[in-house]
Amino acid sequence: MGCGKELARLRAPPDPHYGLPVVVCPGCGLACVRRPRGGLARWHTFLRALGAGLKLVGGGMLLVAVLALGLVFCAQVAEGLDEALVGKPFSAFFKPDAVVQQRLGDWWTYGGVWIVPVWGVAWLSIGLLTGVFFPHWRVRWWLVGMAGLTVAGFFIPTVLIALDDWVQYGTPPSVAAVRTRTDSNELASLLLPLAVGVGLTAVVMPFAQTAGQKRLATKGLRSKRLTRTRRKRSREQ
Description:
single chain; 237 residues; mainly alpha; 2 domains; two-stranded antiparallel sheet; 2 strands; elongated
């Protein structure tokens, strides 16, 4: 059994054959394998889970921040389009006359030259972050979710404005809602950059998801190798 000497303060060099930390009693020559304490192992598992959770939360917060930035610059692009198409139908954007061309040129010179690139980079970043941090998301469900948010974003303000007109002026809510969205090109001007931005994310997401899946697979492979090594050492003991 051994002499009962306390071996906790002795060094445990790795065994040259098995690679296990072995402590040899100087009194009786008994060799023991030093194992990590269960409490420390549980703390290690907890810290690993905490780190994974913090990474997931951080990635989600970063995604929300970049998504908000993309929506802000969608609004900036929509404002420029709306001002360029004052008194014109929205189809004039695709076949602009001299007036619309002049307005678009002025907007591009005084702001659009940096607004549009930042808008594009923001939506590309949204696709990259979504694919890397959430590789299990499907692109079609991402598109459905963005379409739902877009509908909600236009439906709720329209209802509130229609109710306000109904209370103040007695206008029927249905008439007020239709008039709110048809008197200007605001709706189409915002939908165009938003749709193009969501399309950019859908194009980039599959490539980013491949990188995210490889990252998770590498971590899983390391964990499996470590588990197999520990089991092998347990059997050999």
